[in-house]
Amino acid sequence: MTERLVMVRLIPSHFRFRVGYTPGSGRKVSEWAEGGGLLVVNGGYFTPEYQATGLLVSGGEAHGTPYGDFAGMFLVLPGGRVEVRWLGDRPYDPGEMILEGIQSFPVLVKPGGVLGFPPDADDGRPARRTVVAQDREGRVLFIVAPRGYLTLSGLARWLVES
């Protein structure tokens, strides 16, 4: 079986990025899309009660508990600057002004194109995947594997080789 990847590459200065969150109330991606966003993707991990398990910042309001160096973070800073970080390289700083952000894991590719998720860490189960990345020019990439045929290590390897 083959996966069909959908990829969108955005120049951050041309868009406004928001992290939507309604604590204690889950919503489908299709419901979030009704808000008029040009692109809506899922992200992060949540408890059965719809509480963020990692740090999530929506509209400047922080929720959840920060993850450690195994995770990554998508964040929007003052002035609209957007970053995708590996927390092992640049840990979360509670004093930093974050307007929007979400932490998640695993980090599939570390800075410099280094494989971040080795094959021996994978349980081998294919699933639908959503990836956020940033290229050397600072563009933000959202990659979705909607069919559910990729393992984490397979996707990580593909990203490194691309």
What key phrases describe this protein's structure?
162 residues, mainly beta
Structure write-up:
It is a single chain. The protein is mainly beta and 162 residues long. The chain is 9% helix and 30% strand. It has one domain. The chain has helices at residues 29-33, 152-161, and strands at 6-10, 56-58, 61-63, 72-76, 82-86, 100-104, 109-110, 114-115, 127-134, 140-150. The strands form three sheets. A five-stranded antiparallel sheet has the order 3-2-6-4-5, with no helix packed on it. Strands 1-10-9 form a three-stranded antiparallel sheet. A two-stranded antiparallel sheet has the order 7-8. β4 and β5 (82-86) form a beta hairpin. The protein is globular and about 40 Å long.
Give a quick rundown of the structure.
This protein is mainly beta and about 160 residues long. The protein contains 2 helices and 10 strands; from the N terminus they run βαβββββββββα. About 10% of the residues lie in helices and about 30% in strands.
